[in-house]
UniProtKB/TrEMBL annotation:
<dbReference type="Pfam" id="PF14656">
    <property type="entry name" value="RAB3GAP2_C"/>
</dbReference>
<feature type="domain" description="Rab3GAP regulatory subunit C-terminal">
    <location>
        <begin position="1"/>
        <end position="166"/>
    </location>
</feature>
<protein>
    <submittedName>
        <fullName>RBGPR protein</fullName>
    </submittedName>
</protein>
<dbReference type="InterPro" id="IPR029257">
    <property type="entry name" value="RAB3GAP2_C"/>
</dbReference>
Length: 166
């Protein structure tokens, strides 16, 4: 971008402006940032829902694991459309665990007393873990419908038929 400056500012001495510093930065490789975001979401879900026995890096193939340790400005080979069926199976199991844990947490909190999900996770207003799992399914190449069907089945199995019907 072209930055027009007034003549009075041209002769100013001192540290470089923040705008000039920002323009000198290398451009990031957005798919790599997106890849990092998926890992952060996976780690947060594991921590927040207290999932046991999940190995987060097992959800990614070798290209995906190598990409985590590269500079965000570098162009990296990210996983292609063809995935190993074992990795896809592990991803699917993980997403179903997230949904099951979220429904279990919601149901156990409502059995103790009548509380909404927003009350149980007050600093996460609007954070709906089954929806997060469905969104994550898109990045992990798993069918969103599979995750949503599992969510409905979990709601019915915990006796929350009114939510399951919705």
């Amino acid at each position: 971008p072209v930055l027009d400056t007034e003549d009075a500012w041209v002769s100013v001495e001192g540290p470089v402006s923040i705008v000039e510093l920002a323009l000198e930065q290398k451009r990031i490789h957005y798919p790599l940032v997106e890849h990092q975001f998926v890992l952060c979401t996976v780690l947060y879900a594991i921590m927040r829902l207290s999932l046991k026995g999940v190995k987060p890096l097992s959800l990614f193939d070798s290209k995906g694991r190598n990409a985590f340790f590269k500079d965000l400005t570098s162009i990296q080979l990210l996983p292609s459309g063809d995935m190993d069926p074992n990795v896809l199976s592990i991803r699917q199991q993980f997403l179903l665990k997230v949904v099951s844990a979220a429904v279990q947490t919601l149901c156990s909190s409502q059995k103790d007393r009548e509380v909404s999900e927003e009350d149980y996770f007050p600093f996460e207003k609007g954070k709906n873990w089954p929806t997060v799992a469905a969104d994550l399914a898109q990045y992990l190449q798993i069918s969103e419908d599979l995750v949503r069907r599992h969510y409905v089945c979990e709601l019915y199995s915990y006796g929350m038929d009114h939510l399951g019907e919705e």
